[in-house]
């Protein structure tokens, strides 16, 4: 939670904090009435309606793994109800939130609901094999919403760049454009939340446990506090273990009682699967005796309560907690401690100043109240009169079967099988599309295909690329590469020296000389240097001289024999008595067919792949062209 700096604050503004890994965030944006009701009163009324609807889906006794589903009103940046749920190791809570919000959007079609977690738009991840190719993580912000019981994705046709939140909400509320996601995407999300919220209720586990009397009293009045106790036990550290070693708050008198405790399956697994030695002050039967498992489970719950209570009480008094730690991290990232050794007097001075500023903020009081709320609740419950007689003499239900804890292989294999089938279906559809495109082309790689390859490659080469790298043009005209010819000539002259006139006697190359033998040293004979001429003539002369010199060097190699030249009428040089030198000159003057050579290189490269993936097939595939495997034979 960010703290707006005051004008007198010595600290820089906080940097945005990263999203916690085990938390889902949600925001509900209503279509506000044009006039009459104020946004504040409208949000308050909406809040009450939502709570009423959710209570019909989940009983009040439902136990969330870590945090319950809560909503808070806010007017910035736009009027909304928002909240977050930490689901920890229990992903069922995250998908339960999705199910509840989707049901809420079905009830009220004027609500646009947005969700995200540390992975971003996790709904898109669930439907990854059904998404259009353009919907990348960079394009997804403010595009995915729940509305009217459906998934909505604002298409690229309505906004090339990711829209702002206000723009996205305006598009959804107008209802003039089709923003409903495709049926495959809808099906992927619906199959993931199928069975909720009933599935979440079935995920509860009730077990007998022998608890100290104060712990049994707390759970009798506030069963949901079991989640904080399990969290305190599971996330214990050295300092909290010291609290459990004394058991000052929850073992007064040493009386214990067997009671049924309800928790999620994830909580039960976190308690049972961890080895933990009981504190010396805690009464425990010997291992193997009757009731040992009930006593061991109760001991872990009691230690969790003791650790949670002590930690919350201390953090509440200090008002620190996770909010203070986040504030301190933001100061470190902004450079407040740059060059300062941790633990030094200067470091402590900065921390003390930050703490003083933090204590004056409204966040401090809110954090203190939030951290101390469970402590106040426990103190209030334990202040009531209670005795062991309140729990004895009652028929206790048997513990639920926990075979699911040891027989999860079938469920795991089912999930893996579903994912494997999803991947296979995706690959099948992909191969079918590729086969369809391949059949749509001619069985022969004809002239039209040659032309398509050449044109596509030319468009690819001429396409100006961004910093993200070269991209194949998507059937749209690309701007030609922008080259300043005049500056290019000047740069070349600075390296090679001034340009000779082609008719200057000293500029003629001697017989058998090459461009590497040309001497452009102006110090030899300044009078031999041609007078400056017009820019156009200079450019033409330079290019001709450069081309002639380059061709003369290349003629000494076999490179020219590797190119396919433009088809001409065959000439019988021997019959006409034309000398060999003239024949070579005629071949030299025959232009190279660039397009044919380009396609020939592609086909040769494709043939050398021998049906395996390779650069030629990959590049041609990106350009939407499929070369038949028999193309090289034809």
UniProtKB/TrEMBL annotation:
Protein name: Protein ecdysoneless-like protein
Residue stretches of biased makeup (Basic and acidic residues): 423-432
PANTHER family linked to this entry: PROTEIN ECDYSONELESS HOMOLOG, SGT1 PROTEIN HSGT1 SUPPRESSOR OF GCR2
Classification via Pfam families: SGT1
Entry GO CC: nucleus
Domain of life: Eukaryota
Region feature Disordered, mapped onto this chain: 423-444
């Amino acid at each position: 939670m960010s703290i707006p700096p005051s004008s007198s604050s010595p600290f820089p503004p906080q940097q945005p904090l990263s999203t916690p890994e085990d938390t889902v965030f949600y925001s509900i944006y209503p279509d506000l009435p044009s006039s009459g009701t104020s946004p504040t009163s409208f949000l308050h009324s909406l809040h009450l309606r939502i709570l009423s609807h959710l209570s019909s889906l989940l009983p009040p006794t439902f136990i969330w793994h870590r945090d319950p589903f809560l909503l808070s009103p806010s007017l910035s940046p736009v009027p909304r109800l928002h909240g977050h749920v930490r689901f920890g190791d229990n992903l069922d809570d995250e998908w339960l939130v999705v199910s509840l919000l989707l049901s809420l959007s079905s009830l009220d079609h004027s609500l646009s609901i947005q969700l995200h977690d540390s992975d971003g738009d996790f709904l898109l991840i669930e439907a990854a094999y059904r998404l259009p190719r353009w919907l990348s993580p960079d394009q997804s912000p403010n595009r995915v919403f729940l509305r009217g019981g459906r998934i909505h994705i604002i298409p690229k046709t309505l906004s090339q760049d990711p829209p702002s939140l206000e723009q996205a909400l305006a598009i959804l509320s107008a209802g003039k454009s089709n923003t409903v996601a495709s049926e495959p995407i809808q099906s992927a999300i619906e199959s993931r939340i199928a069975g909720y919220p009933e599935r979440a209720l079935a995920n509860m586990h009730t077990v007998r446990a022998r608890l100290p009397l104060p712990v049994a009293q707390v759970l009798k009045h506030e069963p949901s506090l079991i989640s904080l106790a399990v969290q305190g036990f599971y996330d214990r550290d050295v300092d909290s273990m010291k609290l459990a070693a004394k058991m000052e708050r929850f073992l007064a008198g040493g009386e214990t009682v067997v009671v049924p405790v309800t928790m999620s399956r994830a909580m039960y697994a976190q308690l049972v699967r961890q080895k933990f030695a009981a504190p010396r002050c805690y009464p425990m039967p010997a291992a193997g005796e009757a009731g040992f498992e009930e006593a061991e489970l109760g001991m872990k719950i009691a230690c969790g309560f003791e650790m949670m209570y002590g930690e919350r009480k201390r953090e509440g008094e200090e008002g620190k907690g996770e909010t203070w730690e986040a504030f301190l991290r933001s100061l470190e990232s902004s450079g407040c401690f740059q060059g300062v050794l941790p633990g030094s007097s200067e470091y402590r001075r900065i921390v003390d100043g930050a703490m003083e500023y933090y204590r004056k903020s409204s966040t401090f009081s809110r954090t203190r109240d939030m951290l101390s709320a469970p402590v106040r609740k426990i103190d209030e419950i334990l202040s009531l009169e209670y005795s062991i007689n309140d729990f004895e003499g009652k028929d206790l239900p048997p513990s639920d079967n926990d075979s699911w804890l040891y027989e999860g292989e079938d469920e795991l294999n089912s999930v893996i099988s579903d994912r494997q089938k999803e991947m296979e279906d995706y690959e099948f559809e992909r191969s079918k599309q590729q086969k369809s495109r391949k059949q749509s082309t001619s069985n022969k790689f004809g002239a039209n295909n040659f032309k398509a390859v050449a044109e596509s490659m030319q468009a690819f080469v001429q396409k100006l690329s961004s910093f993200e790298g070269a991209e194949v043009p998507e059937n749209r005209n690309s701007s030609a590469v922008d080259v300043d010819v005049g500056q290019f000539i000047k740069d070349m002259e600075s390296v090679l020296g001034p340009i000779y006139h082609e008719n200057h006697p000293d500029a003629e190359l001697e017989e058998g000389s090459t461009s590497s033998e040309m001497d452009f040293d102006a110090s030899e004979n300044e009078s031999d240097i041609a007078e400056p001429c017009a820019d156009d003539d200079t450019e033409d002369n330079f290019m001709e001289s450069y081309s002639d010199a380059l061709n003369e060097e290349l003629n000494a190699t076999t490179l020219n024999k590797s190119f396919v030249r433009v088809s001409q009428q065959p000439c019988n040089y021997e019959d006409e008595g034309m000398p060999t030198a003239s024949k070579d000159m005629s071949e030299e003057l025959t232009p190279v067919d660039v397009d044919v050579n380009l396609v020939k290189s592609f086909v040769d490269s494709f043939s050398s792949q021998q049906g395996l993936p390779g650069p030629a097939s990959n590049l041609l595939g990106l350009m939407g062209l499929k070369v038949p495997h028999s193309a090289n034979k034809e």
